[in-house]
Amino acid sequence: MPSRARITARLHASTPKPQKLWCNRGQTRLSDGNTAWKALDASANPPDAVMEEGAFAVMWGPWAVQFLVEGAESDLDPLQHQWKSQVDTLGAMRNSKVAVLSHNPAR
Question: Strand, helix or coil at 66?
């Protein structure tokens, strides 16, 4: 059993108050991230919640707020479908709750 799965199982078995496990995963905009999130969600002991720290619009570095790319359906480059990848990945979670954060000054 991977160490994360052991940790989740032990936290859930804690008595008298079972503990919750949140994982800050990220990378839902990329195909490798999508695969990792789905594998974690399908595991025997998935975390109670997973978090995407850079959702939809981000302000990383000295640049203004950037919205993730969503290219034409016909574009085969996966980097042109980052926004849709995030939406699809977050929507595919069945066993963990999902939290999203966006690094920007929007109010």
Answer: strand
